[in-house]
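PROTOCOL LOG
Step 1. Enter all chains and additional molecules of the complex.
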Amino acid sequence: MPGTVAGIESDPAAAVAISFDAVGKRYGGNDSGAVIALDDIDLRVRRGEFVAVVGPSGCGKSTLLRLAAGLEQPSSGTVAVQSDSVGFIFQDATLLPWRKVLRNVELCAELRGIGRTARRARATRTLAAVGLADFADKLPGQLSGGMRMRVSLARALALEPEIMLLDEPFGALDEITRLGMQEELLRLYRDNAFTALFITHSVSEAVFLASRVVVMSARPGRIHRVIDIDLPTPRTRDLRFDPAFTALAARVSASLKEAS
Ligand code: ADP
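Step 2. Run joint prediction.
Step 3. Record the structure below.
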């Protein structure tokens, strides 16, 4: 229905970085064994926006991200990504254990065909940006889980992406490290001005990071509600104790409950 696409009602003129138009994704055949992972997804992510997606397991969050990444094609509808400069961050840091940290950070730029001098310079800069300049010559096995995830962030940033797709990147980290990584990610987001689509299971993480939270429901995966997070920026750790933050987290939680 015109005018109801999530994300364009309030600002129709804004540039769109990622759009899902009437997107459906089905796994398997047309028989009763088929899984409808996504149904009738309409969502526009504006350039420079930070959108978080929450929902119960199996509601299609990862499928949504894989579609945006072009790793899969929709069964119906259209997915459009207005840039070929896209970085991915997964739950696992996926570093090559035999390559030193700096060489891991260079990897995506290397695969992209960026010359040695340029990619070394970028990798050195982004490794410093995530606070790991002193660990360039270490192997991944010598780092903590949080540090490995920062290497993964540096590797994606070395591509200087306009769009960052993040699939529960902090899900495996302990709570303290996770909170620190959220603040670090927001700082990198501010400094690098990318568009972010971020999948998470955590309501507080979604509210802390995003300017909009998409709440999905399962079976089939649909958008249940989109909630604007009109909290001040830059966001600091104290925000988590602010009544406005608590109220928004409660709204998102209530929506999730309706959707489950
Ligand atoms: P979420 O990330 O929200 O947990 P997913 O996107 O991983 O959800 O999965 C959505 C639904 O699609 C689930 O029912 C899942 O089992 C199914 N699914 C995902 N990928 C595949 C696949 N490659 N083949 C078959 N079914 C899949």
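Step 4. Note key features.
The radius of gyration is 18 Å.
Residues 27, 35, 37, 55, 57-63, 221 surround adenosine-5'-diphosphate (CB under 6 Å).
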